[in-house]
Records
---
Amino acid sequence: MAATLGASGHDVVHVRDVGLAAATDPEILEFADAQGRIIISGDTDFGELLALGDVRGPSLVLLRRQQGRRAAEVAALILANLDVIADDLDAGAVVVFDDERLRIRRLPLR
């Protein structure tokens, strides 16, 4: 997915490419926040940590129920909706893609 998003002109890194493949979720959140990056993941723990931390960033794109889709299909889904979610992601938000809908919640979540 990172390659597809990167090929579309977006500045994308994968955790393994920055030495964070074995990092904890809080370490990844800290990295993303410090770098001004958006996390794209299927791991719901990131949303929970953002809620508990009562923080304004980093933004999270949470992919729910996407098991049947290939990475390129998920990347295409994100790209197709980028105009709708860009302002929220810039401001700090959790954006959830599931099988049927798109949900956006601004940070902080409390």
---
Amino acid sequence: MGEAQATLFEPDFNRSTKGHSTDQRLTSNAGVILLREADHRPGLVDAIAQNINEPRNSRRIRYIMDEQVRELVLAIGLGY
């Protein structure tokens, strides 16, 4: 037959909650939840951000590097 395949990742959110809507104004960006979960378990964005040189003055930093990298990766994944 075939080999059993393990799941790539298991979502951390409560899977017993289900939503149903007939409203046509729903967002098409719901796929970002899947992207977030795919990043969360292996920590890909955190690993990338740790290897980026940070030349900025630490007293003037408002957004840390992993937040900026995560925003960029998710935006690209959503097609922005």
---
Amino acid sequence: MSLLEPVKEKTAGQKLAVFLADGSKLVLNASSMISLTKPFHPHKGEVLLEGEAFFEVAKDALRPFQVVSSELTTTALGTSFNIVAYPQDVLIQVSLATGKVKVDFHKAALKSPYEIIYLKSGKQMAYLKIQQVLTKELFNADKVLVWKDGAIYLENVDQASVIKKLKRWYGIKIQVEGKSSTAGNVITTFKNQSLKSVLTSLGFTLGFAFEIREDCIFIKHS
């Protein structure tokens, strides 16, 4: 589909492919919104992102492509990359699959760049918004980009992170009683599985029982 209006992916477990007028393509993850300035700027393609998306940017030396997400702006040219920038999360990540990107950081109040980061293929930048701490490292594309193939990847995450991911992925409310002591030890991938199947597996690993009542899941730890 062509992107003319802000788009939000609401369908549980589904992705949305969007094709832009300049030939670029993006895939939106669940609970994500993307919008662009109308009309699409003739000399600069600018996209606004809230959530997660994977971009495949068409190569055009005269027209750089920019993604504005929270405190940063990512500029690319003939590049593919993933951005995670949910407004309610404390972490922003830019993971570069191919090419090269420039990332400009902005002060929340002034909206003026105070630092510029360059990433090359295979590198990932992570930024903690509250602490304003920045790290750069190699990343595993099989883990970071697996969501595009309909898979949930969990590794060394706490219970709150697991629940948040399931809420976004399946579009369901979840209430939890108690807390798991082993959530940080989970390393698993669920590909194209039903919510019941995922909860059954996690319940065995993390030691909880669950009940599905209409549009809400009730989890209780033993």
